[in-house]
Write a structure and sequence with these properties.
This protein has 172 residues and is α+β, with helices and mostly antiparallel strands. 19% of the residues lie in helices and 43% in strands. It has helices at residues 2-23, 30-40; strands at 45-52, 54-61, 72-77, 88-98, 107-113, 119-125, 127-131, 136-141, 146-150, 156-159, 163-169. Strands 7-8-11-1-2-3-4-5-6-9-10 form an eleven-stranded antiparallel sheet, with no helix packed on it. Strand 9 (146-150) and strand 10 (156-159) form a beta hairpin. The protein is elongated and about 90 Å long. The termini are far apart.
């Protein structure tokens, strides 16, 4: 009886060691794993709308965790406060994110386009309102907030604009 208990114990320990060793082995290629992860957690989409000196209204997928990605977005720069080369409709990339209380500004919006000759807009500031029930985020930017522009020649300008950003999660 004593030998049977010891045998069962030894067999159990052997199985545990073997399973632990195999668990750390990668048995699938990484693209299969990424596909499985994406299938389990669908990519979030948001309706991102700008009104005021910046205009846009588009569904965007996967925007915008802290390190990106920065999805494609079409924005119309309608204000004559911007340099002439910035005005008009542009398809580029967008990044937006809120920040904690330790910074002097609450929200950041970045938009850039142009490939080789890249144009870049960054706005920091805003007054944030988040409706907890609907999860709709509204950020109002006024001329008290700072907007920087950079053109392909490296010229940096500071301008003061007014616009509202509305970010609404879409349910699929």
């Amino acid at each position: 009886m004593k030998y049977a208990v010891i045998s069962v114990l030894m067999l159990s320990m052997s199985l545990i060691f073997v399973s632990c060793e195999n668990e750390s082995q990668l048995t699938q290629n990484s693209s299969d794993i990424e596909t499985q992860i994406l299938d389990k957690k669908p990519i979030r989409s948001d309706q991102i709308t700008f009104t005021g000196d910046l205009v846009g209204d588009e569904e965007v997928f996967g925007c915008c965790p802290n390190a990106g990605p920065s999805p494609e977005y079409t924005m119309d720069v309608v204000s004559d406060k911007f340099p002439v080369e910035f005005q008009g409709e542009h398809t580029g990339n967008i990044f937006l994110n809120g920040f904690g209380r330790s910074l002097p500004w609450a929200y950041k919006v970045q938009f850039w386009w142009g490939g080789e000759e890249e144009y870049f807009i960054e706005i920091r500031g805003g007054t944030v309102h988040k409706d907890k029930r609907t999860k709709i985020l509204t950020v109002t930017f006024t001329q008290e907030d700072t907007c920087w522009t950079w053109d392909p020649n490296g010229v940096e300008r500071i301008i003061f604009i007014d616009f509202t950003l509305i970010r609404a999660p879409l349910r699929k």
